[in-house]
Design a protein that fits this description.
The protein has eleven helices and eight strands. It has two domains: 160 residues, Spore Coat Polysaccharide Biosynthesis Protein SpsA, Chain A, CATH 3.90.550.10; 111 residues, Tetratricopeptide repeat domain (Serine Threonine Protein Phosphatase 5, Tetratricopeptide repeat, Alpha Horseshoe), CATH 1.25.40.10. The radius of gyration is 21 Å and the shape is globular. Helix 1 links the parallel strand 1 and strand 2. It is an alpha/beta fold.
Length: 278
C-alpha cells in the first residue's frame, strides 16, 4: 500500500488483511502523523518515497519492487478487505493463473450519501513486467495484458470510505486535470490518459471540455464502440447536437451489433427528433 497521513484508517485496513498477508509493505509519501509508526507496529516494512514530483504509479511500483511473495494485493489506507475476501484471494492465488483480478470496490463518502460501486484490478502476480502506469489515475491493467495475462472480474469486495468534502474533491479534480495535461503533452501517443481527463472535466461539470476530449477519443479509436457511445451521450445530453448523437450511436451499433446501451440512447434521439418536429 501507499499512504500519506493515513493514521485514521491504517488500523482497520491492516486488520482486514492480517490473516492473509505474508508480508505487508507500506510506501509512505510524506506523512506527518503516526502512519509509519502504526505500520511498523503491525510488522509492515515501511519505505519512504519522494513525492515532490507527483507520481502515484512510481510509488506503487516502489512497493511492488520490495515484495517477495508470488501475489500482490494492493490497498489504500482508507480501504478494507471485506469479510470473506481473504478466502477468495487464497483460492485465486492457488490457481496460479496469469491474470489480474478486478475487485468490487464499494465507495462511501459519508453515511448520508449513496454509495457507488466500481471495479479495480488490485490482485495480480508479482512479475517483473507487471507495473503501474500513470502519475495519477495509475493503472496496472495494460501491463498485465502486455504480459499476455487475462483480466478477470471477481465478487471479492473492498470497502472504501473517503472523507473529502465537495470543495476538496473539486480542488483534487483541478489538480489532476493539470497533471493529466502534462502526461498527454509528454506522450501524445498514450490515449489512455484522455479517458481520465474527460472524467475529471465531467466531475467539474466542465461539459464543453469533457465533450471535446470525448470527441478526440472517438477520433483516435475509430473502431471502439464504447468510445462512440460515450461521445454520443455528450452530444445527446450535455452539448446537444441530435444529428451528431445519432451518428455516434449508429456507429457504435455498426461496430457492436445489438449494443443495448447504444440502442437505448438511439431511441432517445428519435424521441427528441419527433418532439422537435413542427
Amino acid at each position: 500500500m501507499i499512504v500519506k497521513n493515513g493514521e485514521p484508517d491504517m488500523v482497520a485496513c491492516l486488520d482486514s488483511v492480517r490473516g492473509l498477508a505474508g508480508e505487508m509493505i507500506v510506501v509512505d509519501t510524506g506523512s506527518t502523523d503516526r502512519t509509519r509508526e502504526i505500520a511498523s507496529e503491525y510488522g509492515a516494512e515501511v519505505n519512504l518515497f519522494d513525492f515532490t514530483a507527483v507520481d502515484f504509479a512510481g510509488a506503487r511500483n516502489c512497493a511492488i519492487g520490495r515484495a517477495r511473495g508470488e501475489w500482490i494485493l494492493m490497498l489504500d489506507a482508507d480501504e478494507t478487505l471485506a469479510p470473506g475476501g481473504a478466502a477468495g484471494i487464497e483460492t485465486l492465488a492457488a490457481e496460479g493463473l496469469n491474470a489480474g483480478y478486478f475487485l468490487e470496490r464499494v465507495n462511501r463518502s459519508s453515511e448520508t450519501e449513496k454509495p457507488f460501486t466500481d471495479y479495480v484490478v488490485r490482485l495480480f502476480p508479482n512479475r517483473p513486467g507487471i507495473r503501474y502506469r500513470g502519475r495519477v489515475h495509475e493503472t496496472v491493467d495494460a501491463s498485465i495484458l502486455a504480459a499476455r495475462g487475462k483480466l478477470i472480474r471477481t465478487g471479492i469486495r473492498i470497502d472504501h470510505r473517503f472523507r473529502a468534502d465537495a470543495e476538496t474533491r473539486r480542488r483534487k479534480n483541478r489538480w489532476y486535470v493539470e497533471i493529466l495535461k502534462e502526461e498527454i503533452a509528454a506522450d501524445p501517443a498514450d490515449d489512455s490518459r484522455l479517458d481520465f481527463l474527460a472524467a475529471e472535466y465531467h466531475q467539474l461539470e466542465m461539459f464543453t471540455e469533457a465533450t471535446e476530449v470525448a470527441e478526440k477519443i472517438a477520433r483516435v479509436r475509430p473502431n471502439d464502440a464504447r468510445a462512440h457511445l460515450f461521445v454520443g451521450v455528450y452530444h445527446l445530453l450535455y452539448r446537444p447536437d441530435l444529428r451528431r448523437a445519432r451518428a455516434d450511436f449508429e456507429r457504435a451499433l455498426a461496430l457492436r451489433p445489438g449494443y443495448q446501451e447504444a440502442q437505448s440512447f438511439l431511441k432517445s434521439v428519435e424521441e427528441k427528433e419527433r418532439g422537435s418536429e413542427p
